Every structure is written in structure tokens, then in C-alpha cells.
Model the fold of this input.
Amino acid sequence: MFAARQAVGLFQRRAFSSTAANASKVAILGAAGGIGQPLSLLLKLNPRVSELALYDIVGAPGVAADISHVNTKSTVKGYGKGEAKEALKGSEIVLIPAGVPRKPGMTRDDLFNTNASIVRDLAKECAEACPDASILIIANPVNSTVPITAEVFKSKGVYNPKKLFGVTTLDVVRASRFISELKKTDPANESIVVVGGHSGATIVPLLSQSGSELKGEQLDEYVKRVQFGGDEVVKAKDGKGSATLSMAMAGARFAESLLKAAQGQKGVIEPTFVDSPLYKESHGVTYFASNVELGPNGVEKIHPVGDVTEYEQKLLDVCLKDLKGNIEKGEKFVKENP
Ligand SMILES: NC(=O)C1=CN([C@@H]2O[C@H](COP(=O)(O)OP(=O)(O)OC[C@H]3O[C@@H](n4cnc5c(N)ncnc54)[C@H](O)[C@@H]3O)[C@@H](O)[C@H]2O)C=CC1
Ligand SMILES: O=C([O-])CC(=O)C(=O)O
Done:
């Protein structure tokens, strides 16, 4: 009897310590929105997450109550206006889909006027409440909202370039799905490198590096579809927003990769828009999306772009020009509106 109790005690201690090692609090800012809700649900299903903090200026407690009934181990709590700091305290990962989505006819840059200040204010909350967390920016225009977040963190003296990520996962998700439709293959086996940024011409798929070959008009159409995949959804939703479900899947995949890397897995690689040396000196482009190896401290290694065809180089030239403008616009906004 005594031995049995001891054995149970040992098991409980072991179970407790393994949970503690994997204890990961994840916060979602904008959790009651089109992306926020399915993203919260997917993270509730992730056993690597121990605590979910759902913050939104409207509706977060309801979403949290609903999701909290899902019978996985993690705890869920909703936070409303004025409670961002409480939601963020102790978070290892913060995902930010807060902000308005596009309507037909708009570019992502048209969202700047509204979303720049939303992201700036939430970045301030993060810099104060959880300066060491990994910050995952989903709110558009990502090419500008990432530099905005960096400037806020710099102004508070807590900027860590290894822990700020623009989420561009949806671009590679689309790139692999769209090529599989053409080749009649399983998209799970298609891995396409996509570099640059996250809007129109700044999204550059590098098909030549994936073992797939398209030519002429078919290549043009493929590249255009990857670059403007978001517009396809905006048009189909006809005024009711942009991609939410596929984006939630992409955001959950990126968060899962970060958690795997944080919890010791090696060789975890995801594309993401980060403070990057790749085109800093040559083009003055300070942030760039490419494949990045993730580690326990965030960015472990930024992969170079590698060999590209003449066709892809032309796409890259356009991308770099647009990106520079988008980045500078974000930085200027914070300088003028601290
Ligand atoms: N990075 C990417 O690949 C993608 C980015 N997006 C972007 O994600 C953003 C969100 O899209 P949806 O979820 O469809 O929009 P939505 O309008 O459905 O949800 C946004 C949520 O943010 C909340 N919110 C607004 N201001 C806030 C604040 N100051 N603090 C906390 N919460 C706040 C709203 O109450 C709302 O619940 C948009 O900017 C969209 O362009 C969308 C798809 C893909
Ligand atoms: O297109 C949009 O506005 C939303 C987005 O970023 C995407 O779906 O890639």
C-alpha cells in the first residue's frame, strides 16, 4: 500500500515536472475576430500550450468561455479592454491578429491608417508586460507593422530582433497548395520557398528551388496567384473580410514551430519576415522574409535566398523596391506618432 502510494507520488511529480518544462503561455490579441477565433481553437488543441490568454476589445470573454469547454489540458481566460497587460504577463508567445481586414479594391497598404496605431499601441503593451516574448505579427500591412513593432520595442529599450516575426506562413501554404493543383500531387509533399514580404509584388515564390518547373504563361499565372492569393479570398468574401480560416491554420503552424524549437527540437525551419541582414547593405532593406531556423531563443539562423533564375531575380528587384518603402513608412509613423 505504502509502495503503491509512493509510486503514485513519483508519477505525479514526474507528470508535474514534465508539464512545467512545457508550460507555455500563449496570448492572442484580437482573439474574438475572424482569425482570432479559429486560431484560439487550434491553439487550444495544441498540447504544447499550457495557458491561453485571449484579449480583444470586444467579445473575448465569450470566446474564452466557449473554447474553455474543449477537453484538452490547457486553461483559457478572456480579457477585455484595459486588461491587455494582465493577459500578456508571463506569455512566451504573443500572436497579434488585431486590426481591420481588407475589402474588395483595397491593398494591404490601404489598411495602414487604421492598423498602424492599433499595432503600435499593442506593441507598447507587449514591450511593458512581456518584453522577452516572441511577438508574431499577423495584422496587415505586415511589411510595415513589423517595423512599427520593432520601433516601439527599441524606444522602450527592449528590442530583440530574434523574437519579432511577421507571419508569412500563409504564402508558403498557398504556394504549395497551388503547385499541387497544377501537378496533381499531394500538397503536403510540396515545399516552395517564398521570400520577400507579405503583399502583392513583395511576395516572391522561388519555384526553381523546389524541383518544380513551370514555363511561360503558366509560370506567370502561378506567380501571380501566389502573390495575389489574398485578393482571391477578399473578392470571394465580397466585403465580409479576408482570409481567416487558412490564416488561422498558418498562424497555428508557425506558433507550433516556435514552441517545438523552444522545447528543444532541432532543425525547425519556417519562412518569416524578420530583421534580416540579407539585403541590408546592398539595398537598405532592413526586414526580409526567408527561411529561418528557429531555436530556443527565437531566430537561430537566417537562410540566404540562394540561387535564383533571371526571371526570379526580376521579381526580387521589384520586391526590394516596394519593401523598402513599406518598411520606411512604418518606421516614420512611429517617429512621428510615438
Ligand atoms: N499575415 C497574414 O498572412 C494575414 C493577415 N491578415 C490580417 O489580420 C488582421 C485581422 O483580420 P481578421 O481577423 O479577419 O479581422 P476581424 O475584423 O475579423 O478581427 C479583428 C479583431 O481585432 C480586434 N481589435 C481591433 N482593435 C483592437 C485592439 N486595439 N486591441 C485588441 N483587439 C482589437 C477586433 O475587435 C476584432 O475582433 C487584418 O489586418 C488582416 O489584414 C489576414 C489574413 C492573413
Ligand atoms: O489579403 C489580405 O488582405 C489578407 C492577407 O494578408 C492574406 O490573405 O494573405
User: Anything to note?
Assistant: The longest strand covers residues 287-295.
